[in-house]
Amino acid sequence: MKKARKHKVLLSFALASLMTLNGVASVSAAVPAKEQQVNIENKSTVKQARTSNETLLDWKKWVNDHAYSLSSIQPEVSSGTKIPSNQFEDLEMLKPLLHDKRIVFLGESSHGVAQFNHVKTRLIQFLHQEMGYNVLAFESGMGNVMNAQGQIDKQAALQTMKDSIFGVWWTKETLPLFDYAKSTQATEQPLILTGFDIQQQGAFTNGDWLENPKLAQQFSEAEKQLAEWSSGKDLKGYQQVKATIIDVYKQVKSQIQLKEKELQAAYPNESHIVKLMERTVTDRIRLADEYVELTIQSNIDIEQNNIETFLKTMEWRDQSMMENLLWLAEEVYPTEKFIVWAHNDHIRKAQSEVMGSPYPVKLMGERLPEIYKKYSYVLGLYMTSGETANNMGEPMAVLPPIKGSIEDILSSTSKPYTFIDLRNRQNERGNSWMFEPRLSYSWGMIQESLIPRDQYDGILLIDKVNKPTYVK
């Protein structure tokens, strides 16, 4: 960042209100926007532990001796319904690292990177086929992914992608993942798609299964009203209609058990449709009762450069996401291993300790119970150069690595795809960089300071990136 801005971070209105990319509502992780920006004073000084040139050379030599290089990030093409195992030889090093881990968190420092979508798809193929991770949970609406999974055999992979995940991931590079998921459904080991986000993401069901046109219409209107109120500033107006909106959702919820057969017919590929529908509608009631008012107040406050309420919306959302993820792991898929797709910020182990972050608060990863942290592996994805995109799909240049930063140290391998394990390391001369504050870039441009080993179990660095090819 320029010196005049080194004590500031960029915060877009996208963080506090509903935004759309290709027609899908999205309030995802931090994203700087080109035009709509709010400059907020950063109360913490972003620091990096001082290091000598000799120490930096030691670190880079150690990384060159210990890092792994992926041979490819391109999703594999299956032969029939199974990918030949020898195509995953470069990922074999993950097996001993993950052999006792129930959840693998796949992060990303930006939602707008084509290569992140590619490599995460290939990692998911490997984890699913070779290591039995059968549930893929997205940072997207629980009800939306439920809808898509329930009809995955009825529609093209493109439609499943658009029905399930936020528009920031509607890309040509993500589509192979949904082709792969669809191809597994008729096998003995289907890849199950699910979501854990509580935010609205368009209507999650059309309500036809209710077999009550009047209630279905009221439900549809309630969905639209919630989205409209959430993007506005009329707090008193919402408080006057809130009870009526909640009553509609309660009526819908009362019909779920009674309409089990109709739900199963509408969503044949989702065996847990009743549980998931009840949870999603319950979440909507909570959203209408608590989150919408908080969001409206945040919209009001952020115009005055006051982000306190916005930070509360982030904490509320991530607490809810954590609760949903645990519920899925314990109540819906208690014997399955999970892959989680989300932004780095949501999965980091100690987000509130990251200096320079637009929101230094406890997010989902930090809120997880210790037993889940013990049996999870958190992989952060970063980039060295090229171009990324914000949540509106607008291009942004990736800033050059800062001397001594995470990107600088790992890019010393001069390999296009560098992986380093942090979790199974003890502090020694060559890797002490893992155990002290290091600078890195979120979104390729927001300077942060963090202790790598306190936040991640592993880091994957992509050398050169470009923005995705978005689809409509």
Provide structural commentary.
This protein has 472 residues and is an alpha/beta fold. It contains 16 helices and 15 strands. The chain has helices at 53-66, 94-98, 114-131, 142-150, 157-164, 175-184, 213-230, 235-256, 260-266, 273-302, 308-332, 344-347, 364-367, 370-374, 406-410, 452-455, and strands at residues 8-12, 19-21, 24-26, 37-41, 68-69, 103-106, 133-141, 192-197, 337-341, 376-389, 395-397, 417-421, 438-442, 446-450, 458-465. Strands 5, 6, 7, 8, 9, 10, 11, 12 and 15 form a 9-stranded mixed sheet that branches. It has a two-stranded antiparallel ribbon with strand order 1-4. The protein has a two-stranded antiparallel sheet with strand order 2-3. Strand 10 (376-389) and strand 11 form a beta hairpin. Helix 4 (142-150) packs antiparallel against helix 5 (157-164), helix 5 crosses helix 6 and helix 10 (273-302) runs antiparallel to helix 11. The two termini are 34 Å apart.
Which key phrases capture this entry?
40% helix, disordered N terminus, alpha/beta, 16 helices
Using only C-alpha atoms, the radius of gyration works out to 22 Å
Kindly name the structural category. alpha/beta
- Beta content comes to 15-25%
The mean pLDDT is 91
**In DSSP terms, counting alpha (H) and pi (I) runs of 4 or more, how many helices?**
16
Q: Total strand count, please?
A: 15
Distance between the termini: 34 Å
Helix amount, in percent? 25-40%
Low-pLDDT windows of residues = 1-43
